[in-house]
Design brief:
The chain is of the alpha/beta class and about 170 residues long. The protein is about 40% helix and about 15% strand. It is built from five helices and five strands, in the order βαβαβαβαβα. Strands 3-2-1-4-5 form a five-stranded parallel β-sheet, sandwiched between helices. The chain is elongated, with a radius of gyration of 17 Å. The relative contact order is 0.17.
Length: about 170
């Protein structure tokens, strides 16, 4: 895909970390970037730095995602790039030394943001892309990238929720 000012992108988690670095890299190529994040203060600053747009969102809430994508599209047009970097992780062991088990609400929140949030954004973004005209002769309409840290694959201590799609988790 050619990266220039004819392309709009949404980056979840774009107010910090990998999302911020991704938003900045896209903007350097001329891409019109909408940062979707829950951190309004930091998100506004990054958006201002890169000439983009900030949109507050709770990615775990499909209605919030719908509203955020509408705002991003109103500002920049249909996104042709969707990059999911939003994620949370608490260092909570499955069982601690006092034999206290992992908080199920914290587990559910992590799954809601990291898994369902990526699904909510990707599926709604894909629907918008499919309704848009192709941007290349081969029918390309856009691309979606879902990111995770290595902890998603290694099942690190205290990251049972973060790596929940894996079959084993270390308990020590």
């Amino acid at each position: 895909m050619k990266l220039d000012n004819s392309i709009a992108a949404v980056v979840t988690g774009g107010a910090s970390g990998l999302g911020e670095a991704t938003a900045r890299a896209l903007a350097e190529q001329g891409v019109r970037v909408a940062i979707l994040d829950r951190d309004e203060e930091r998100g506004q600053k990054v958006a201002s730095d890169i000439g983009g747009t900030f949109v507050a969102v709770d990615v775990s809430d499909a209605a919030s995602v719908t509203a955020a994508l509408k705002n991003a599209r109103d500002a920049h047009g249909q996104e042709r790039i969707c990059i999911n970097c939003a994620g949370i992780a608490w260092a909570i062991k499955t069982v601690d030394r006092d034999v206290k088990s992992h908080d199920p609400d914290a587990f559910a929140k992590t799954i809601a943001v990291n898994l369902m949030g990526s699904f909510n954004v990707a599926s709604q973004s894909a629907a918008g892309m499919m309704q848009a005209d192709p941007i290349s002769a081969d029918g390309e309409r856009g691309l979606i990238v879902n990111t995770a840290s290595v902890a998603a694959f290694e099942g690190q201590i205290g990251q049972v929720a973060y790596s929940a799609d894996r079959k084993s988790t270390r308990l020590n």
